[in-house]
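Re: S-adenosyl-L-homocysteine structure - here you go.
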Amino acid sequence: MADGRWVIDVVLLPGRDRSARRRHPWVLSGAVARVLGESEGSLGAWARVLSAEGETLGFGHYSPASQIRVRILAFGKDAPDDTLICERIAQAVARRAGDPLVGETDAVRLVNSEADGLPGLVADRYGDVVVLKLGSAGMSARRELLVSALRDATSAPSGFERADAAAARREGVAVREGPVWGPAPEPRVWIRERGRRYAVDLVHGQKTGFYLDQRDSRDLVESLAARRRVLDLFAYTGGFSVAAAHAGAASLTLVESSAEALALARENIAAAPPVPETAFVETDAFRFVRQDAGRYDLIVIDPPPLARRAADAARAARAHKDVLLFALRRAAEGALVLAFSCSHSVDAKLLRQVAFAASLDALRPAQVVRELGAPADHPVSLDHPEGVYLKGLLLRV
Ligand code: SAH
């Protein structure tokens, strides 16, 4: 089924070969004229992609149920086999090892899907444990191969698969979760990032357990938070607050709606250098900023994705503006505000417009001091701009 030989030909509509010729890895269902050689065993199998004129453009994994009908792994006329996947895994892992851009930590994204030439595969390392997440029929069909390649490449003592239920539904594959090699992870795995330590719940936590993608911004907060009163909105397990504690913040206020996340935040803050005053507030952050009367010198606003689809962009932009507007009113003179969006449809340009509108309505002029984003272990391929999701602004009020 998922061996090296391709059995399926996906022929594109006339004029719909441009994207593949530009090395974009996705063949969308609307670009497909016909599929030849499809059978029961086609789910995730290698497919050849051809132009309407019959020219071979590349080879990828077939997803009959998905909007993304083929994820191309190799462009050109040479048919690859599964060894390509093992080589790319080894290469992705090797790139992170000792990368000065990633720096001192034992918690790293090892494989970042399209950006590492492995669409549908995410793998993160947390100390002794590799957590993988499969997001395509092609990767699900090769589970054993991926597991053995990751095990070989990392020599990690254990591997755990986290389910991606939404992707499984889209791709028409079974939802799977559980240990894939070695012992199951402990309920708390402690990771290290610079001098900071975090307890992570790899089985129940969000994403694969921790927001590895905010590492650079945690470093930034640690460099800025000395003697500041810090408000950490959408705090999750306290990633930013721990960084602020290491900086010697004057006070911490963590606002988060998930009781489980906040419980872990308490453990993380307890393990960090003491801060004179810390408040854990389990509530809706949108409501909190409206009612709170505090004053802060450093505010982090890191909401969950507020728009799944492009059509929701306007609503998401309003929500981002709303929380930033009220947060700016709580900002002391000279305060720093880190405002993030991880919604795909709220891009960097829209985020700036949101910040402008919020600053105007809050009557708080502000400067953009720096643009923020994901760190070096979460690269984006130039061929696949959809890989950009985390944007942020450092503002000075
Ligand atoms: N800043 C965090 C990541 C935040 S992810 C970090 O660096 O680790 C977004 C968080 O917002 C999640 O923990 C989610 O539980 C929480 N959340 C979602 N909706 C919320 C709301 N309305 N009010 C407060 N928290 C919310």
